[in-house]
Specification:
Order of helices and strands: EHHEEEHEHEE
Protein name: [Ribosomal protein bS18]-alanine N-acetyltransferase
Number of strands: 7
Strand order of the largest sheet: 1-2-3-4-5-7-6
Low-confidence stretches: none
Shape: globular
CATH topology of the domain at 3-108: Aminopeptidase
Function: Acetylates the N-terminal alanine of ribosomal protein bS18.
Keywords: Cytoplasm
Bound molecules: coenzyme A
EC number: 2.3.1.266
Family: Belongs to the acetyltransferase family. RimI subfamily.
Distance between the termini: 33 Å
Helix content: 25-40%
Largest sheet: 7 strands, mixed
CATH superfamily of the domain at 3-108: Gcn5-related N-acetyltransferase (GNAT)
Length: 152
């Protein structure tokens, strides 16, 4: 069974090593993870999913800098062995719930244009592509900007 909890600083080395596997093209560094922990739990919400052995199998984070602005989904990642079990869907539901409580106006995220699995996930959850960012993940690695309105 999968459980969910808030991420804590001592999870960081595990997340860094998972990141290198899950985002081989442009993994977050330890510094970027540390930054993503800044402002937890006030402006950032950072979750991990764990298996029966308490091993981390996925993580996700969102940033809402102030009420009335868009929530920025910072990362969503699930190990391949645990894919297609609804973990990312659960994460997104939690991130959206938290962002609504923080009075965000909408959800926003970037996703690699070739990341068809993640794009399918977000489309299923009601996100729409609103723009393309050239070389967002590095030279030649473009991203779609996707958005989901609240309330409608
Ligand atoms: C993309 C990712 C987050 C999906 O996580 P997940 O826990 O497997 O997603 P879910 O089980 O909640 O999937 C829900 C739905 O999204 C769609 N989906 C998810 N992964 C998919 C894939 N690889 N191919 C096609 N559709 C996919 C499906 O519609 C799926 O429903 P279904 O399994 O009933 O068909 C995961 O594969 C991952 O971490 N990939 C590497 C990192 C990454 O790309 N993160 C996103 C960065 S923006």
């Amino acid at each position: 069974m999968i459980s969910y909890r808030a991420a804590i600083q001592i999870d960081l080395p595990v997340l860094v090593s998972m990141e290198r596997v899950l985002f081989a093209d442009s993994p977050w560094t330890t510094g970027q993870f540390k930054e993503a922990f800044q402002g937890v739990p006030t402006i950032r919400h950072f979750l991990v999913a764990t298996n029966e052995q308490d091993q981390i199998v996925g993580y996700a984070a969102v940033l809402v800098v102030a009420p009335g602005v868009e929530a920025d989904v910072l990362t969503v990642a699930v190990l391949p062995e645990y894919a297609r079990q609804g973990i990312a869907t659960h994460f997104m539901g939690e991130l959206e719930k938290w962002s609504k409580e923080k009075e965000a106006s909408a959800m926003m995220l970037e996703v690699g244009v070739e990341n068809s699995g993640a794009i399918a996930l977000y489309e299923k959850l009601g996100y729409q592509t609103i723009a393309t960012r050239k070389s967002y993940y590095g030279q030649g690695l473009d991203a779609f900007v996707m958005r989901k309105e609240f309330g409608a």
